[in-house]
């Protein structure tokens, strides 16, 4: 079963052939129609070889992923795997293997995932039975999506006890992960997209290769030009080589393969040498491609929520010391919300959180009713943080505080939208479910972050606006803190709906701030 797009170029540490190329197609494994499928496999191999392809990638298991390919598992059928792998090897195609794919570990559509222990037990039999035919093993397709780092490392370490062959970790674009010593290769898959995404994806490659070299990993590039023609893929691959990238790979987008049962694979035979030479003599094409690569924004990664401890509510005092979540590490972005139900307007001190380098982004005071006072501070984690203490000008009035921690925020420009009190703060009264203000994000993938304070209200359940994920909350009659986030895939206007709280009220008063975090570029 063939999947995905693998190329292993001149890696240096292993003698891979120059310009190794693969593609994506359905390579029949199970013989529902043995004669037709035999012809189909032969035709597909012939078409690959006619294009000078040298590698093929198999799934060993496709349970939980029926929308993509038929469900099957070869873990308990090494003989079938050996037969399919051997016919590829006999024709000159090296075999690489995804032992599992993301759907296996996801409980969706009635699928029941196996335990990690069950997977390890199955591999203990399957891998030794076929290892001699395999060039590279990979633990899981898009492993960072459905496995925790601990699970990924447990499976990888076990696989290392079963084989001396190279083992890869396969990750989605924007998720650079270096796992345990079992991993020798990284298969880096950029997210699917149109050809318009190609230039900035290519721009990231030199930096990614440098990172791989620092970690001693063989770097393999996946899916950098999906949904365009094979010719464009080859031209861009050629340009990558000339710009100094040593390994590249891509899926074919618009090649029509022959239906199952036909003897010869579809599509014209591509004159690879002629295409690769064409770019050398086409100055306009080369100039256009180089300009695109050199003058587009860096690709951005994914902001992830690390965690937030329960809000600290010390009572009617002048200071509050919220706690930093234990999972926070260096370069994580921390945002602190501190609140005061005071009887007179005063100030939250701009002293760095007790001299700890915190920056006060904003302070807002509403003089009606409970005199709600909200301040927001932020800081990049320095690797050895202590919990900050924020100080208010008066002790009277209940005090509260909480810290949310994020990963993948742009360290230089963490706020995607410049804060404007008139645009981004909203105070309301007598509403169980107040509505935060809208915001217009600038960067694709920005994370809208709503922070707020609700008084005179006893919560039954604390609910965010529809589409948002609640990150921090507490249940206190005079001071309910609120934090919620939502990823905005395409930059533009985001209009949050009302909160979805349930509980008893006594003339609620609220202040909510709508902010947006900017994702970091993949290459800093």
What distinguishing features does this structure have?
524 residues; alpha+beta; TIM Barrel; 22% helix; disordered N terminus
Instruction: From the 3D structure, determine the CATH topology of the largest domain.
Output: TIM Barrel
Q: Judging by the overall fold, what is the CATH architecture of the largest domain? A: Alpha-Beta Barrel
| N- to C-terminal distance | 37 Å
Name of the CATH homologous superfamily of the largest domain: Glycosidases
Write the topology of this structure.
Blueprint: H1 34-50, E1 55-59, H2 78-90, E2 94-98, H3 116-130, E3 136-138, H4 143-146, H5 149-160, E4 167-172, E5 185-189, H6 198-203, H7 205-214, E6 218-222, H8 230-242, H9 272-278, H10 283-294, E7 304-308, E8 312-315, E9 319-320, E10 333-341, H11 352-355, E11 359-365, E12 372-380, E13 390-391, E14 398-407, H12 421-424, E15 425-429, E16 439-440, E17 446-461, E18 469-473, E19 480-488, E20 493-494, E21 502-517
Helix pairs in contact: 2-3, 3-5, 8-9
């Amino acid at each position: 079963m063939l999947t995905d797009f693998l190329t292993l170029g001149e890696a240096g540490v292993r003698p891979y052939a120059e310009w190794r190329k693969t593609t994506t197609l359905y390579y029949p494994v199970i013989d529902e129609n043995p004669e037709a499928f035999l012809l189909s496999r032969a035709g597909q191999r012939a078409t690959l070889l006619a294009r000078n392809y040298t590698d093929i990638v198999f799934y060993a298991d496709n349970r939980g992923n029926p929308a993509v390919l038929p469900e099957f598992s070869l873990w308990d059928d090494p003989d079938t795997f050996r037969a399919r792998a051997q016919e590829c090897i006999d024709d000159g195609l090296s075999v690489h293997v995804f032992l599992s794919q993301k759907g296996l570990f996801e409980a969706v559509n009635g699928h029941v995932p196996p335990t990690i222990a069950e997977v390890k037990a199955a591999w203990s039999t399957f891998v030794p039975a076929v290892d001699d035919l395999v060039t590279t093993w990979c633990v899981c397709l898009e492993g960072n999506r459905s496995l925790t780092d601990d699970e990924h490392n447990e499976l990888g370490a076990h696989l290392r006890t079963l084989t001396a062959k190279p083992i890869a970790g396969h990750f989605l674009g924007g998720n650079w992960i270096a796992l345990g010593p079992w991993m020798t290769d990284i298969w880096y898959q950029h997210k699917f997209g149109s050809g318009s995404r190609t230039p900035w994806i290519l721009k990231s490659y030199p930096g990614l290769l440098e990172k791989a070299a620092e970690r001693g990993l063989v770097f393999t590039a996946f899916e950098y030009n999906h949904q365009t023609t094979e010719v464009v893929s080859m031209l861009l691959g050629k340009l990558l080589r000339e710009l100094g990238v040593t390994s590249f790979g891509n899926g074919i987008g618009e090649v029509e393969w022959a239906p199952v049962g036909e003897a010869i694979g579809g599509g014209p035979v591509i004159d690879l040498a002629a295409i690769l030479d064409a770019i050398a003599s086409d100055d306009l094409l080369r100039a256009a491609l180089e300009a695109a690569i050199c003058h587009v924004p860096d690709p951005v990664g994914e902001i992830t929520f690390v965690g937030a401890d329960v809000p600290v509510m010390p009572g009617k005092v002048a200071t509050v010391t919220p706690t930093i979540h234990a999972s926070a590490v260096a370069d994580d972005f921390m945002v602190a919300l501190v609140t005061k139900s005071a009887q007179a307007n005063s100030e939250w001190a701009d002293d760095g959180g007790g001299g700890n380098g915190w920056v006060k982004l904003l302070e807002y005071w509403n003089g009606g009713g409970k005199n709600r006072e909200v301040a927001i501070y932020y800081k990049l984690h320095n690797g050895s943080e202590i919990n900050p203490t924020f100080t208010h000008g008066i002790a009277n009035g209940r005090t509260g505080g909480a810290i949310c921690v994020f990963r993948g925020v742009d360290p230089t420009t963490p706020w995607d939208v410049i804060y404007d009190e008139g645009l981004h703060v909203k105070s309301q009264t007598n509403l169980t479910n107040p509505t935060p203000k809208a915001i217009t994000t600038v960067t694709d993938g920005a994370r809208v972050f709503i922070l707020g304070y609700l008084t005179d209200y006893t919560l039954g359940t604390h609910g965010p606006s529809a589409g948002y994920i609640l990150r921090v909350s507490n249940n206190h009659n005079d001071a309910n803190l609120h934090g919620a986030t939502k990823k905005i895939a395409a930059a533009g206007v985001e209009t949050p709906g009302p909160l979805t709280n349930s509980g008893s009220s006594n003339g609620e008063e609220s202040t909510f701030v709508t902010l947006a975090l900017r994702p970091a570029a993949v290459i800093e």
